[in-house]
Here is the input.
Amino acid sequence: MTLKNDPKSSLSRVMLRIFGFLVTSTVCGVLAASLVAPAVASMGFAVSDSVQYFDALPGQLDVTPLPQATTVLSSDGKTIATFYDENRVKVSLDQMSPYIKDGIVAIEDSRFYQHGGVDPRGIIRAIFSDLSGGAKEGASTITQQYVSNVLNESLVTAGLGNEVVLPGQKTLGDKVREMKLAIELEKKYTKDQILEGYLNIVFFNRDAYGIEAAAEHFFSVSAKDLSLPQAALLAGLVNSPSYYDPTVYPDHAIQRRNLVLDEMLKQGMIQQAQYAAAVATPVQLKISAGGQGCGSAEMAPYFCDYISHLILNNPAYGATPADRENLLYRGGLTITTTLDSRLQGAAQTQVDATAGTNPDKWGASLVTIQPGTGRILAMAQNTVWLPTPGKFDSQLNFNVDAKDANGNDLNGDGGFQPGSTMKPFTFTEWLNEGKSPTQVVDASRQVYPLGFPWRASCGKVLGAYDSAEKGLGAADDLRNNDAGYYRPMPVNYGLYNSINTATFAEATQLDFCGIQHVVDAVGLHSGVDGSPVNMLQLGNLLGGTEVSPLVLADAFASYANDGSYCAPIAVLRVTNPSGAKLPAQAASCRPAVKPEVARGVNSVLQDVLKKGSGVYIQPKVQDLFPTAAKTGTSNSNGATWVVGYTTGLATASFFGDTSAGQSRAGQNVTINGKFYTALDGYMLAGPQWANYMSQVGRLYPTGAFPAPPAH
Here is the structure.
């Protein structure tokens, strides 16, 4: 004999049902003591005890704001990504289809508008169905279900998700508590407010909490546009989101949908013709793939990651890391960023094309700053966020400092050696000290031994280039990329042709502390730890310290902005679901380089493209609009650059080794089917920059640079 037919077991279940009915009757003012008092007394629980027990239960339910998804937008309103623990977009009742409102009431609680939070009829019906051996029926009203959901959400928000009690695990005490709270809730809120709250909180799918997210997920429509068969399917889904999941069990979903339609017809919510058409309609899903975070970003996953760091690391968004994470994933923020989707699309297309199939996983990146504001307009690289067959995947952001790179699993985060892109800063100090850009210096000199009399008013210059002193710590004699340039030459000629020995010849006549001031003023710093780039270390004249592309682009933007530096910004506006504004970023600019000096630098960097180290870069952007640029290559050819700008855009283009340690030399390599003896800035980073800038340059100002003073 099974337990189901055990008289003692059956009696126990019946007594629990009767006790539940007793308490509910008390709650509703319909105490049926004559029916149940003897049985309750035999259980040792007096009717007066049940009233006292009920009265002692808490009656206040705090309905806190619902967790909602945070949306990150480009400056032109395009969605970049969403962040959520629960994918939910709260909408008002008038933004929901009438069919979903009627369908939920019909199937879940047909007397919703008649009862006071607890439905005695429903409980009695459930009791006698159980007593008579009929199908098991639920007795929870929509209000009670709403109470249960609110209680559970409160636990999750408080980090107590392990204490959530699921419907099949509830004790009689849990249910009675919900009854008390439901009755009190109905005294505080209207029926429509409760229905709105319920439809916004209820679970439909792991990627859909609330009716708006469910409509978008299953049918790619807003809740207000749900048709009758769509609404009926979703109304039926809440009873068991897994069993009635139309993507897994379409037959179950149709049967449940049709049951909802039956109830709607019986209750006069729809007409026979509507019913017939709806039940004849096949399930026509249009799934919007779920996914949150930067791995599921619709564009710019690495910029998305940068934004998340700005929120999670800023105490303005919460006192603790946990508070900030809770705000990002549950706060329903709208974060409007500086990203321009037009530039981002062009940048992504270009970096993807630069290395092609790329089996050796060379890195390519582009990042653009707007001079005069510091706004980051584009940030792209030739990788995908999540592992994908045939793709170069990485979660390391090539464009930013280590603290924002999300590259803790690698040793290569925090930028790359900038090579000759550092040379304009020495030239800036040359002009600062009143020297002529056409003055001739001795670029034939290759030896700078230990103890050379460098000038530094704030410290001591370190390093030496002297093969004869290698055993004492010096480097080999200074070399140029090409033979034939070891001779006297004008300083400007040495810069636009990127001659190492010319830069050192300049430095012999300068105060290194002035060079240091220039570098600091335009925001340059180590991408590894944020420390200043030490210009009293000789190797840094030629770019020995890793610098991130974002920081380098921003430094060059100062020249485009007539010498004024603006710190990079990415967050324009942050609002919460009620529209209240949270802290954001504003332009933060300061004088960095004298305007006349910036104009002198601009003049020479335009010549880089016209007759210098960038003359072979195609397409010739300088023929389209005024453009200045500088090429750069590290000693091992493993990091190559072009950083160039117009009056409206400053872009750093990088191509090179982004693997852990950045130890690969860019020599004797094949990229996109072409063999290179040694990579140089103009070869891959150059065309990448030029193709991109020629496409997007005119979207922003491209006026002539102001002329430098006459010398």
